[in-house]
């Protein structure tokens, strides 16, 4: 019964999210793709995106939302976010892209000295309801991608806390709010909250986040929101920089 309720709540959130707007994007359905490059192939992969792939995505109707590299250089991955009008459009646009003769030529030419991509991870997302109404911030030098895994039935609680308190408390410390998403879980499990925070550099980000964590107002908000139980089971966080051709900066 709990799994059924979680699936129903997740579906309601996703339907509501389809009507959301964001200053960063006109799209309604999103995909975060993580490419692990073969050893030594990351420069070629970046070049292929910058010179060809992003333009061919746009030709197929996709929106290039953001392109990022991890600060940890040992993590040989490129992360990017694409936007679509809806889920069905995503399938149609990818078929158009993959069947584009220009892409086929670019793809084959780029593989003459070996394949560039070792593996691909995909995460589907929609805009989180009520969390994308803030003005677009100035450009950032560093980003942190944060993913919240909530306890069952608590995804609405975390959204309410961010909507009513957390985002403003981030800004109070100089942290910049970027898009907030809910994952679309194909197995019907509870969505995760995924968002980006920005700052000028990593050291200033870490200092600002520590001030946030120690802010008495935040501590009061957190404790009050958890009177009926903990909300967040785990947070995944990773630092990124935006690539020069990234729309999101």
Automatic annotation (TrEMBL):
Superkingdom of source: Bacteria
Protein name (Swiss-Prot/TrEMBL): NIPSNAP protein
Keyword Signal: yes
SUPFAM superfamilies cross-referenced by the UniProt entry: Dimeric alpha+beta barrel (SSF54909)
Keyword terms: Signal
Signal peptide: 1-19
Pfam families listed in its UniProt record: NIPSNAP
Residues of the NIPSNAP domain: 30-129, 144-247
């Amino acid at each position: 019964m709990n799994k059924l309720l979680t699936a129903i709540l997740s579906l309601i959130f996703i339907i509501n999210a389809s009507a959301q707007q964001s200053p960063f994007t006109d799209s309604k359905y999103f995909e975060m793709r993580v490419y692990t490059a073969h050893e030594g192939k990351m420069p070629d992969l970046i070049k292929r995106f910058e010179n060809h792939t992003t333009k061919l995505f746009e030709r197929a109707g996709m929106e290039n939302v953001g392109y990022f590299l991890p600060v940890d250089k040992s993590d040989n991955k490129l992360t990017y976010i694409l936007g679509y009008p809806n889920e069905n459009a995503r399938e149609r646009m990818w078929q158009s892209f993959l069947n584009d003769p220009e892409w086929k030529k670019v793809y084959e030419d780029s593989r003459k000295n070996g394949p560039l991509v070792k593996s691909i991870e995909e995460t589907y997302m929609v805009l989180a309801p009520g969390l994308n109404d803030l003005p677009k911030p100035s450009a950032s030098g560093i980003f942190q991608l944060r993913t919240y895994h909530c306890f069952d039935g608590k995804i609405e609680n975390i959204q309410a806390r961010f909507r009513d308190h957390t985002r403003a408390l981030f800004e109070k410390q100089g942290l910049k709010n970027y898009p907030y998403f809910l994952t679309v879980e194909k197995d019907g499990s509870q969505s995760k909250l995924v968002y980006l925070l920005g700052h000028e550099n990593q050291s200033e980000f870490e200092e600002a986040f520590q001030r946030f964590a120690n802010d008495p107002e935040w501590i009061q908000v957190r404790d009050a929101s958890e009177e009926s139980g903990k909300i967040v089971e785990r947070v995944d966080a990773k630092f990124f920089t935006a690539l020069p051709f990234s729309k999101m900066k």
